[in-house]
Amino acid sequence: MGAGASVLSCCRGEFEESDNTGSEYQPLLGDRERQAVAALVKLFENDTRISFYDGEPLRALTVLARSDVHHLQLSAATAFSEISEYDVRAVPQEALAPVLYLLQSAYADVQQGAASALGNLASVSANKRLIVEMGGLELLVRQMLSPNTEAQINSVGCITNLAADEENKLAIARSGALIPLVRLGRSRDLRVQRNATGALLNMTHQAELREKLVAAGAVAVLVDLLHAKDEDTLYYAITALSNIAVDSDGRDALWSAQAKLVTELLQIMQVHKIKVQAQVALTLRNLASDARFQRAIVQSNGLDALLPLLQSSYTALVVAAAACLRNLSIHADNEDPIICAGLLPELMDLVPQADQPELQCHAIATIRNLAANNGSDKQAFIDAGLFDRFRMALESTDAQPQVLCELAAAFSVFALNDQLWRPVVELGMCHLLVRLLRCGHTDTEYNACLAIGSLAGKGHPEAAEELMRLWPRGLREGLARALTLPEYASSNVRPAVLWVLMALLNSRRAAVCKVLRADSQMLDAIESIGVSHVPSLSTSTSASW
After folding, report:
1. Euclidean distance between CA atoms 507 and 500, whole angstroms
2. CB contact at 8 A, 111 and 149
3. Which of 10, 224, 259, 469 is most buried, taking the most CB atoms under 10 A from its CB?
């Protein structure tokens, strides 16, 4: 039954009841109420597509809403509830006023209808703030405390929608709604539980409110909701936990439940739908910003759960898994488990995927983190095709700036490693570093300088010879350009360039020193930035910077 039909039926019922002329009956409606009912009946008979939000229909419904008669209040609440299900739009203050008035009715069914209407209207951005400004939030919190399940469903659902607006979030926290929301997260009614969890999720989008939720006991409730049978409730709980894990204090709170939390998340990741699996992986990634969780996830067989995601044909799953591995790889003790779990070849295959730059960045950064441990055997990296994959990524014409930056940062690590620097030189990767040095992106150029300087600093003839071979093929041009950049654009790059020159000098190769001494333009560039501690390149070949 549509809103018009529902209200028309109620209105006609009121007429029929009040038309009894027996002495035992008294008229139930006042003149204004009779006029309002008559106006609505006439309007509905002429046009069932009528809007309640303005004009005569709104005036008539406002009269009914403010009536002392239960059935008239219910008629108005029913109209607002049903029409707002399909006519959802920004409404004026005059249209919200009777709905908020009905929310204060002494009758539970009227309150439920009003809360339902308010929840529907609160899905529109413009209405969200207006409802709060008109005092609707306090009324909804009062409804949320009701023992009536339907009142809880509608009021919490409305607060969930209101909490989607950033400006409303703090008002909701100040209204005293957080503790009732946390409590309703344990409701036995799945609808109440779902709405409450959705509201908690919306409130986790601000750091200040995440702290308040933790203080209100939300962590224990959200962890328990990892057993939720409803897929939406489960997703909301996982995402809320993920947001809480963004903050150090939040991770501290979650660590108290880490044994149960990590185990539950890993189990969910193996059996649920793609959307939930991806969110679990992202939650684990946020948790893995903490060294304690980095080890706990790996020790709980988290790598075995991540491998199928990394091999998935669904990009969202692969990105989420790679992002998680990126953080897990920060912990030095996780290098061997990651390699033994067979993840290294999978990561290598992601490096050249130029159509997925986010995925490339995660894979490259993970490999860089794993390679940073200079004491372990790196043959597995070479066997997995490290340099072939990185060459493909570097030579791609579609490589994005953020990917080039990650590649340069990775090479700065490879150049320091006792096992990986030599293949960089022998496999002809240095010319790609020169390309990065000239790419025009400061962070990338900085990392390229670090890599080139580390190679030059090895003191091996082949490294110095390869760099001098590249000197007229772009290396000199890139270094000279970086030295002439303004200070604000190159505060990190210029010291790195000087370090490259220092490392070349310290190689004690006669050809190197001869080239640098003869390069007056380079000398002038160095002098122009006032590096007074640089020894005279024309008189010294044994700098010890």
Report:
1. 11
2. no
3. 10
